[in-house]
Amino acid sequence: MSDEYKPVKANKGWIAKQLANNPSLRREYEARGEEYSLIDELIRARKDAGLTQRELAERIGKKQSSVGRLESTLADPNGSVSLAFLRKYAAACGKRLDIKMLDV
Description:
Elements: H1 12-21, H2 23-31, H3 33-48, H4 53-60, H5 64-73, H6 83-92
Helix pairs in contact: 1-2, 4-5
């Protein structure tokens, strides 16, 4: 058995249908919007850099499963990701992490 992380591709049509039909799920999804945006941005940066999860992991001295967990953990309300790991991830993609406090 391989220990390689193999993510399941999101079916956006199915997700949209679930959100439309389940108000409590939609509220929770919307409440986690910032996390989902960060996930999208991280994955986009990795792909724009032309890197697989494995290649990015090699650049930051981690296992591929660590990158896979990062890309999925941000959506977990109990998940925890260090700023140091996010900075390494960004640097490996040729980016710089920039966190801002915004007025609401």
